[in-house]
Write a structure and sequence with these properties.
- The complex is a heterodimer of chains A (139) and B (391).
- Chain A has 139 residues and is an alpha+beta fold.
- Chain A has a single domain (2-125), classed as Alpha-Beta Plaits (2-Layer Sandwich).
- Chain A contains 2 helices and 6 strands; from the N terminus they run βαββββαβ.
- In chain A, the strands form 2 sheets. A 4-stranded antiparallel sheet of chain A has the order 2-5-1-6, covered by helices on one side.
- The mean pLDDT of chain A is 90.
- Chain B is an all-alpha fold and 391 residues long.
- Mean pLDDT of chain B is 88; it is low at 46-52 and 89-100.
- The chains are: A alpha+beta (139), B mainly alpha (391).
- The A-B interface holds A 21-27, 29-31, 34-35, 38, 55, 57-59 and B 232-234, 359, 362-363, 366-370, 372, 375-376, 379-380, 382-384, 386-387.
Chain lengths: 139, 391
């Protein structure tokens, strides 16, 4: 099993095919979308592949250390930030192919007009713990 | 075995162990072990009569005390690096007459001690007063069990120097119970129902109008729970809820408790909030809501708490009582960085007929929403108005 992060972006991903902001959908289309996401997570729980799913607020703050005895420096949010993560789902699956297959299904969530959004999702493997037995001859 | 009954015995069993000489942290661990043991052995029904510990079905409290005390002694003996049990017993004052203050009440005070952070106080209260397991509490707040276990043991260390027989502050206890009612996810534990149970138990242990006020507030809100979300999980606002499905028994109980509390003429914020909830519960339809009286209660509440959130809610009530323009005027006096300020502005503009502004503000409010349910709701509001504009 391997864990993958399916990342959804507010900004930073290529534009989806069905690119209409959600507040321009009909309320019924929004309901259908929300239901699709719910069903998807429930189905992955059923197959034993769901780990976690969370949504993030769009606005965040950048923070850095500013030296001993000083409060941290904060900055932002920056309107020009190119990459803005909207949320994620963590899945635990048998193969990269399965991760891609599931991301494809998630991307088919319906949007305006009830048509699939074709949203670009980013699939990133977790760096897992080192295996006990490796095939590496040098270890 | 009724798990709720079992859990309701937790505080008094901890109290008995503490009076026998156990420190709070060890007593709490021992009782938690005994509860886990009880859940393991009791579901099948009465234990075999051969049990040396007696029949838990006939005397669950006696059973818990016996098992917990044994666990405490085992743990103390096993811990050879620490003082021996004999020394411990020698040092503790001899059990004198029954304590003046009820053990249960003392536990509420201890678990909500002002030295604890809110999240620690909530966790400790749910475990030591509520008798929930660490795993159940962790699930309710979506954190790993190990994290919750650490939070609880740190909390116990923080209050380890607090004497068990000192009177505490009811207000801090109420804030903790309010948090339990208001926040948390739905695991296998219903936190809202648990908060009501704990507040009810507190109300039985202490005569205090604000405890009654909080209990009434919880009952009145809980009565509407089934109607607050649609089958698809979306939020249903108060005005659109199916009032026929409100729990009238819970409302009647809340109103009765509130009236008795108000009659004592020691008004506090929870009584005032409950009064507002009662006025909503009392209206047969949304249109028949007595908004004028609700505004008056918000004025009382603002006087009691001086909270900007209260003033924001008051602006909504003013908008209903005196019209959206009056509501917008009240809103203009408030800082627009307040949470939900934009959502309130959107609503009042819609009522005022300015649909384009309302739609824009709903969409903006959705981006600032503090949770998914509200974000979806506000996005739907924007979508509804935009769809109307297209027609």
């Amino acid at each position: 099993m391997a864990k993958y992060l399916l990342l959804k972006h507010y900004r930073g991903a290529p534009a989806p095919v069905n690119d209409v902001p959600m507040d321009r959908w009909t309320p019924e289309e929004i309901s259908a979308h929300v239901q699709y996401m719910r069903d998807f997570a429930a189905r992955l729980e059923g197959t034993g592949e769901f780990v976690d799913g969370q949504a993030l607020a769009p606005e965040g703050t950048f923070v850095r250390y500013d030296g001993e005895g000083r409060p941290p420096v904060t900055d932002g949010p920056f309107a020009e930030t190119k990459d803005l993560i909207a949320g994620w789902m963590v899945i635990d699956v048998d193969s990269y192919e399965r991760a891609v297959e599931l991301a494809g299904e998630l991307s088919a969530a319906p949007g305006a007009g009830g048509e699939p959004i074709h949203e670009w999702l980013e699939v990133r493997p977790f760096l897992a713990a080192a295996p006990t037995i490796t095939d590496c001859p040098h270890r | 075995m009724n798990e709720a009954l079992l859990r309701s015995l937790t505080p008094s069993v901890i109290g008995i162990l503490v009076r026998r000489g156990a420190d709070f942290a060890a007593a709490e661990d021992a009782v938690q072990d005994a509860l886990v043991e009880a859940v393991r052995v009791w579901p099948a029904g009465p234990s075999p009569s051969s049990s040396s510990r007696g029949d838990p079905m006939r005397d669950p409290k006696g059973w818990l005390v016996t098992v917990a005390w044994r666990r405490f002694l085992d743990a103390t003996r096993a811990d050879t690096a620490r003082r021996r049990r004999e020394d411990l017993v020698d040092e503790e004052p001899a059990p004198g007459p029954a304590p003046a203050v009820d053990d249960t009440l003392q536990l509420y005070f201890l678990c909500a001690h002002p030295s604890l952070t809110p999240s620690s106080a909530v966790a400790l209260t749910l475990r030591a007063v509520g008798g929930l397991t660490t795993r159940q509490i962790a699930q309710a707040y979506l954190v790993p069990e190990a994290t919750m276990a650490q939070r609880i043991s740190r909390a116990k260390r923080t209050v380890s120097g607090v004497r068990f027989d000192q009177p505490g502050d009811v207000a801090t206890v109420l804030r903790v119970l309010y948090l339990v009612f208001n926040e948390g996810y739905s695991g296998d534990v219903d936190l809202a129902a648990e908060a009501i149970r704990l507040t009810r138990q507190l109300a039985a242990a202490i005569d205090h109008p604000e405890v009654a006020g909080l209990l009434a507030l919880m009952l009145l809100h809980h009565a509407r729970r089934a109607t607050r979300t649609a089958p698809d999980g979306s939020l249903v606002p108060l005005a659109e809820q199916d009032r026929g499905r409100w729990d009238t028994e819970s409302i009647a109980e809340g109103v009765e408790i509130l009236q008795a509390a108000l009659a004592r003429d020691r008004l506090g914020e929870f009584q005032a909030q409950a009064a507002i909830a009662a006025l909503h519960a009392d209206a047969p339809t949304a249109e028949e809501t007595d908004w004028v009286q609700i505004v008056e209660w918000y004025d009382e509440l603002a006087r009691l708490t001086d909270s900007p959130v209260v003033r924001l809610n008051r602006a909504v009530a003013v908008g209903e009582a005196d019209g959206p323009r009056a509501g917008l005027a009240a809103l203009a006096a408030l800082n627009d960085s307040l949470p939900r300020h934009t959502a309130v502005a959107a609503y009042l503009h819609e009522r005022d007929g300015d649909l384009a502004t309302a739609a824009r503000l709903y969409a903006e409010a959705a981006r600032k929403a503090p949770n998914l349910a509200e974000r979806d709701y506000l996005t739907r509001q924007a979508a509804r108005l935009n769809a109307r504009g297209r027609r």
